[in-house]
Amino acid sequence: MSFAVSGPAAAARSVLSVTGLPVGSRNSLQLFIEWFNTTDVRIAAVGQIDMSTAQPFSHQVFRYAGNCRHLTLNLRKVTLFDCAGFAALCHIDDRCHMADVSWIVQPAGCVSRVVDFCDPLRRLPLSTGEHVSG
Questions:
Q1: CB atoms < 10 A from the CB of 105, how many?
Q2: Does domain 3-118 correspond to CATH entry 3.40.50.300?
Q3: Rounded to whole angstroms, how far apart are CA atoms 25 and 93?
Q4: d(CA 50, CA 29)
Q5: Which of 36, 75, 97, 129 has minimal Cβ neighbours within 10 Å of its Cβ?
Q6: pTM tops 0.85
Q7: Cβ neighbours around 80 below 10 Å, total
């Protein structure tokens, strides 16, 4: 796994490959971490969040958003999302509640479909607006 991460004060965009598989391989997932200030972070995912990437995905979210107060998960460029991805979002939700971190998910269509099916009570904080920054 290779990555380059800058500190929160730098407000720089960082690239992280969470699977250790080469980009372009069948089950690739990349994360882009962007700190806006010392408490607000956006993590964008590009690729697939499935059984092979869901656990590393949630671990990396915790690793790079550990000291934030507001987390935005941009999943608009996720191309495949399954129930393991949903379980990862539930785990992130639990940890955010315990740490008093506000968070929101900006979903791709495939993410919305799985969450709609698996979360009928709408407990996960999905963005429903058309205009989303970033």
A1: 20
A2: no
A3: 29
A4: 10
A5: 129
A6: no
A7: 16
